[in-house]
Amino acid sequence: MNIIKLKIYGNKNLYGEVQIGGCKNSAVAIIPAAILCDEEVRLQNVPQIDDCYTLLEILSTIGHQVIFEDLDIIIKPNQKTKTNLVTSLVSKLRGSYYFLGALLAKRKKVKTLYPGGCNLGARPINYHLDGFQKMNARVSEKDNLLILKAKKLCGTTIDLEFPSVGATINLMLAATKAKGTTIINNCAQEPEVEDVANFLNSMGAKITGAGTNQIIIEGVNKLYKTTYKLMPDRIEAGTYLILGASSSGSGVTVKNMNPHHVRSLLDLLSEIGCELIVNEDSVFIKSNDTLKPFHVEVGPYPAFPTDLQQPLCSLMTQIEGTSSVKETIFHNRFSQIPELSKMNANIYLQDNTIYVTGITNLTPSHVIAYDLRGAASLVIAAALCDGTTIIENIEVFFRGYEKPVEKLAKLNITAEVIKD
Ligand code: EPU
Prior knowledge:
By secondary structure, the chain is an alpha/beta fold. 30% of the residues lie in helices and 26% in strands. The strands form six sheets. It has a four-stranded mixed sheet, with helices on one face. It is globular, with a radius of gyration of 21 Å. Uridine-diphosphate-2(N-acetylglucosaminyl) butyric acid is lined by residues 25, 28, 94-95, 118, 123-128, 162, 164-167, 188, 190, 306-307, 329-330, 372-373, 400.
């Protein structure tokens, strides 16, 4: 495997227009969920990111035919889908855990390695497994492999301890073909949950309530051919909006996005003094010389998303005074702190709150990306520097951001991938 770095030539006066791609966190569920279909699935607006390519490769290894047709992806059904996921591909990303719900529903069994993904502290999947067990599946572990089996999956009522995105979607996948009705209470309300439910319903699933705190799934026997267009990625949109807010150029237009999905971010950016023009599917943002410091706490949707906490830290360096952001979802989502410090940021962590005092003229440096959104925070910081920054281990960024070099170029930022 190549070790790649990203070299970014900073330009604080950035401006221009950027197009947002399809949503990563619904794509990583919809691709595994496609195996539930008894006919052909055509997906549109799938983001061109490494996590999706990895999942499509897993689909091929378990016997599905995957066809790329222009920008559409066609997945052909295979009633005899293999149920062994003993491939290192599974450990490359978090989203591979959606094969648990999908294979359990389709084949009533699955044997798999544990999912990987960004290291954000402990990321257990006990809510997923407890829910599968309530639906009548047996869960065991042997030689570090997770084994799930069910004679018959049965509908039931599941009360989630926390509105986990992954558990909500995984249980919804399993329930789609279970016998009877499944009710998931205290479920996640993130737009990605709704996108996955809309996809399943487009094939004939019977799911109501997605987007609220209670989802009801009436199991069906068969799912039919569909063409489904994924929603835009709200975190990619949020990242470019934060970049626009951090810069001193003439403004950035983020196109092909859903402003409702980033309401908490737009409210914050407006409160601190950014100029915003919000249209149906685009947002124009222009910063202001005197943005106000703020405090924000992340939380489950519709609260401020944890996925934008790291990018937000780079904006905080450009605001006079002390701003802070409290992380409440993940125990260790702070990899950007030492790296931004290397770039001269005045940043520290106390308990689970990050404090940043600005304004800092960030200095170009040699930094390391440890996780996807940490990488995004470094890319923003590098864009704001006067000079050239090198970000190592940039593979983690390509896992979840589509064509970033091309998109940064649209904003007048030159970036270059360097392969060792
Ligand atoms: N949790 C448990 N047990 C479980 C499941 C979750 O204790 O069985 C805990 C987690 O450890 C965490 C909290 O509950 O502390 C929330 O986890 P959640 O299940 O909601 O997150 P996830 O499914 O692991 C997805 C996204 C993340 C995003 C979070 C929160 C995918 C593949 N990942 O993770 O995306 O941050 O929801 O919105 O959809 C990213 O895109 O960079 C990313 C990390």
